[in-house]
Amino acid sequence: MGLDLFSPVAPVRLNILLLPVGKIKRSRFLSFAARLQTEKLVRLGDISPDERPNRNMFTPLAFPNGLILYNISFSVPPTSHLELFPFEIFREPLVVIAIADGAELQHDEDAEKETIAKRSSGVDIPPNPSGLEDLTQELSWVKEQNPRALVNQLLIFDYDDLEKSISGPDGVIWVPAPQFSRPTTIKTVLCDITSLLLGEMDGFAKLMQSIPAIDSPKASSWGPRRGPELRPRPIDKLMHRMTMPAQFPVSNGDSQSATSSGRSSPAPGSHDSPTTFDEITRSIQVSNRSATGTQSKESSRDRMSIQGLSAADRTKNRIKGRLGVVVGTLYLQTGRWPDALKELVEAATMARASSDYLWHGKALESILLCLLMFGWAGMDFQVPQICYPVAEKSSSKSSHSTPVHSVTDVVGSGQSAAGNRLISLQNLTNLLPDLCNNILHLYNRAAVITDEPLPPLVFSETVIRLSRLLCAIRLRSGTLDDNALRHIVMNETLVPSHTEWPRGAPVLKKNDIANFLFRAMPLSLGVELPITDAAPILVGISSVLSILDLPRKKALVLRELVLLMVPGLVEARKIGAAEIGIHPAAGLSTLSEAAFEINALDVGRGDMGESTRALLTMIGEIYGVQPSIYQEHKKSEVSSRPSTAKGSGMNEKEYDSIASIIERAFRHVTLDGYGDLGLKIAILRVSINLCEALPDFEGVLQYTVELLQTIRGHLMLPELGRKPPILSPDEQVRLLNTIKRTVGAAHKLGATHLESEYWDDFLVRGVTLLEFPEFKRLFRRTRKDLSIASVADEKSKKDPFLYNAFAKTDYKTSEALMIAKEFASFKVTLQNPYDFELEIESLQLQGDNTTLDARAYDIIVPPLSLYDVMIPAIINEVGALNITGCTIKVRYCRSRTFPIFQSPWKPTPEVKLKRTGLAAKNPLSERPLSWSSTTSKDGKVLPKVGPETHTCSVKVIHPQPSVVVHSTSLSQSAMMLLEGETRTFDITLHNVSSCAVGFIFFTFQDSTTRQLQNALSNKDLLPAEIYELDLQLSSKPPLHWVRHGSKPNDVTIEAGEKATFTIEVFGKPGLQDATVQIDYCHLGDKQDSIPETFYTRQLSIPITVTVNASVEVARCDLVPLSGDISFFNNQTKNSSVSSQVDKVYSSPLLANHTAQITSTLSHLSSDSHCLAVLDLRNAWPNPLSVALDVYREKDQDETWVTVKGTIQPGQISRFILVLPRIFLDNPHAAIPILHSVRRQFVVSANKLTFEAEAATREAFWFREELLRRVRGTWHEESTGREGSVDFRSIRFTPRMVDAMRLEDLEITFSLSFSDDQESVAQVKSSKYSAKTNGFLELNVEIENRSSRPVHPLLRLQPGLCNQPSTIALDLSKRLAWTGTLQRALPVVPGGDKIVASLGLIFFCRGEYEIGASVEEVRLMKPTTGSKDTSHISRDTDEIFIPDTFAADGGARKRRIWHARDHCVIAAYD
């Protein structure tokens, strides 16, 4: 450690230089120096006076309470500083202590025995080892090298068997080891050395008094004395600052003054060439200066005239005053403060009288220090009158006399009263600002008037020292209290005071102190001051600005410091490279630390690099530069050098964590809007240049990364509108090459661990799993999809609503799937927001499954792009896999893990501006929160919405087989068939994997399904049309898998085996193409334990199908039949009926029918039937045999009646079928809705009336009954083809409905004689013959087929046949009846019958007819149960909406039924 030149009391301290001699280790020397540095204060009362005569000028007895402050260091002061002697004596080391290690001395056994014997007798004999003579010779060499040192002492530490301090021989002091030393041992040694120094100081002062003249210091700096031409010339122009007092150029004295200066003081040892780092850099600066001109004359001094003083008197007073300043300074350093104050006041008075402004200012500065020492020591004092600015104006002819009354008597025996001391301190405080300005004013006047400018180094240091005084007063609220004085003198911590300023005290503002401080700035850095002198000045200015809390001004000064250091370091590196024999332009890898070793006792180079980076980082923080990983690790206090320390792994994990990345993202956004971008880029470039000049590899990498982070355009690149970085592409490439060159040089030097930090935290923008190839793609299946779940389970899981958006069947997997032990591919999206290519050495996916192996190498990311990289991956364990990031090794950068940031993120801009200045880069909070936090109105901490990380979730399933289609039985995957025909073909599958196939399921897609689905999407369809399309879609699929074997559901294909499957194809109209989809997988268990959800692979086999027409229904009609045919059949079967009756009354049409009609009619029974006429057309070019089956019910057994025929090609044949008439209990029931179409609200697009809707429903249900009772097949004899006939193209008309329908109430007649003596002949089903004048009984049977009870009202209407109504109803003389023709009958329950009788008598012959009608008397409530409910859907769960058809038709009305046939009676005589 060296002398603190910026300490306010630096001129008070005595400088002691420590030098190692002999054989001594660095650590031992530093430990010995540390023991000496613990004692910095020596009280004069503890010092023994020098016993030599005439050595009492600085005797300690004159002021025992005085204190001497020592500055003990082992730094040799620069030669330029020594040239300031005797103006500033404190720079010269007046004491040189040579330190030797006693443990390294060899013991002389004979001398040791003699020494021990003398010590035992009570005589202190110093040791006399064999190496002592060498040490004394080195001490002599030290004296020769330091001729200005007054005391040269050799201290030998830790000599063996030494228990106390011993002096001897001359100039040698033996210091025992710490375990043998007392607490006062080192202090005693310093007191002995101080005693010698005070004695030598007497002779030094007398020598100074004997000098004829003391010249002022020259403004020139030190340079190598290679010739008189290198002496710098004076600068004859004054340079001014706009906001600061003027600074003046330096000038050299002429040869005469130089010679007199050389005679008046000892000259430093001269040398021919620079040998140290200081000399190298100083010689560079000197060589760059202009060196012409001579000393200008003292024109200003000649212009000055002082009243009452001649030139000789002024010269005499000037010499006497300068000598008084020197002597007063010596008194000040030796602790004789009263004598110093007296001498300095007299010297200041004489200097003022002689217009010696330079020494006048120096005297005032020393007086100020003397007063501060009085205050610090707790003594009373009075401020001399010479210090007040008023004294400057009071000048008289006798001003050259010594004003003894201005010197204050100081009590030297002890402390003074506290009240007087406080008053004196406050007076000094009030005077201090004016005194400081006065001192600088005198220094400036010396340059302007007397042409004796103060050297810029001295002027700047004086300004900094005075500024620190003013800062101490300001921080202590305008007082010089004990804390402020201890801080000024002993450099203790200064605690800011928040008390009120004393009344009358001048208020010191920060800006005023800063303006005063900026006077210390050199006018031209590197020209009037060498770098080694200018750099400490700038550092001192920045330290004072730091105390004043002016960071931006401090950053400005430090930036100037960096700009000053870069060219000097570059030049020094060239000189150092030349000295070690390499080319100056060689790279960093050729330089070694030895070429720039400054001092073996200084701090190591590693610490120097850290301190330099700390300085540059501090500048960058003020300018708002983006911090890097090095600063993050520095703050963590775990490892100061994360790139080199093994223990930095934890820091790197914290730096790579998501929380840290989000924190840096918010900080980047905040700092991006703070400060000037051009200044940030400029300071980072300067930082890079400085680190390259040192050279500091880590610094170059750090600030290059920070510069790349500062210039970036986007944190996350968008898809469109990408903003490039601020710098040009060439400059960005240059920065990348800087990183490459630095890392390469470090590796060549052996620092293989040194790598850069990657500059983009959002490198990974997405990770997605790519789908498998088409033949290996996985599909998600459920048991319900494959129709494996039971019917009960299906019903229990149905939703109560018709529409459910989540019930859509999606067979493709929406989740990412991987198969264990099978390769898959991931797509990793990388971003590069810069204009240079990014080289990635390796990339590896990171997940929570350790068996995942997914990596790629040698990836090139294009400039300013989002680039997709395909990564092959394989995993061995089954389960869930979450991929959270990628471990990426960018070339020349550290390998680190990057999280996945898939969604672009932009910060929310601040609506209101609440922070300005330096506070704008802090988090938006009154409390010290993190960058990613903010506060709400109620004070609660609310997290900001930062970048969201993405996790790629993958489900890993068991190994699955791979199956290929080996062969098919189809030629060219095509087949032809007829409508209604069913054919089969075989598919052979081959398992090419090592995993067995445990589950196979076939699904099919065809063209008819697509056509029907498109038709169903039409919203204008009627319910009957929807039902028809849905039925075709769900029944009889075109393709079907035919299972064989005893266990059709147990289908497996072993590894490497083959299996054949049969597919059945049904000829459906519109079938053109189809696709066979084969789903297969490996479940590991039997079918009974199939999971609810599983995954299959799928094979698709497309086939082309041609369906030709076969048998088509050209026309269909239903013809009603009367009951005569049934009556005729009964007559032929009953042998009791005579053939005559048959021959006479049978229908004449029967004789003309063909055999087909005869056979058909022979099946008619007493039940009512209708006749179906079908016209079938053969569209196939070959004859087809057709067989039609009609369903009949006979004796409660189901029978089918078959009608066969052959249809020639292109011909139409008519088939007549006898169908029973059908009764439907509810023909107006709602048309059912099947599974495939579920509509929440069915709104008919066609506005049908109630009658039209009723007719539509009635036609629908009777058509369904017809199709249920009729089926047809065809057969081709030549080829053996066969198929079915589709009757669903038949459309019903109302006439066909009437022909097939049975009414709810059936009215039948029967006639008989009342006395049963004669029988009535029944000619037809409703025609009878009877004799006239006979009592007949007409029975009317009413049958209720419905499930609802009916309360009937019977009306009978007799009349004549084939007569007009006027004649037909005139029955009074022709017919008589007993009872009433209109009567109310009892209620007829559902399914029951009732008979009503009427007595008849015919009076004349003829044909009579009796009609009947039944009307409901009143409406009856329906009863449960029904005879025929087959037309209602069995699955009642499908009817979700209640049918409102009856409500739409209005109120129910009473119904009327009429007899189908009138009862005809032929009366004869």
From TrEMBL:
Residues 6-387 form the Trs120/TRAPPC9 N-terminal domain. Residues 1111-1301 form the Trs120/TRAPPC9 third Ig-like domain. Residues 764-958 form the Trs120/TRAPPC9 first Ig-like domain. Residues 109-129, 247-311 are annotated as: Disordered. Pfam families: Ig_TRAPPC9-Trs120_1st, Ig_TRAPPC9-Trs120_2nd, Ig_TRAPPC9-Trs120_3rd, Ig_TRAPPC9-Trs120_4th, TPR_TRAPPC9-Trs120, TRAPPC9-Trs120. Residues 1306-1467 form the Trs120/TRAPPC9 fourth Ig-like domain. Residues 428-750 form the Trs120/TRAPPC9 TPR region domain. Residues 249-264, 272-297 have a biased composition (Polar residues). GO terms for cellular component: trans-Golgi network. It is found in: Golgi apparatus. InterPro entries: Ig_TRAPPC9_Trs120_1st, Ig_TRAPPC9_Trs120_3rd, Ig_TRAPPC9_Trs120_4th, TPR_TRAPPC9_Trs120, Trs120_TRAPPC9, Trs120_TRAPPC9_N. Its main location: Golgi. It comes from the Eukaryota. Signal peptide: none annotated. Keywords: Golgi apparatus. PANTHER family: TRAFFICKING PROTEIN PARTICLE COMPLEX SUBUNIT 9 (PTHR21512:SF5). This is Hypercellular protein HypA. The lineage of its organism: Eukaryota, Fungi, Dikarya, Ascomycota, Pezizomycotina.
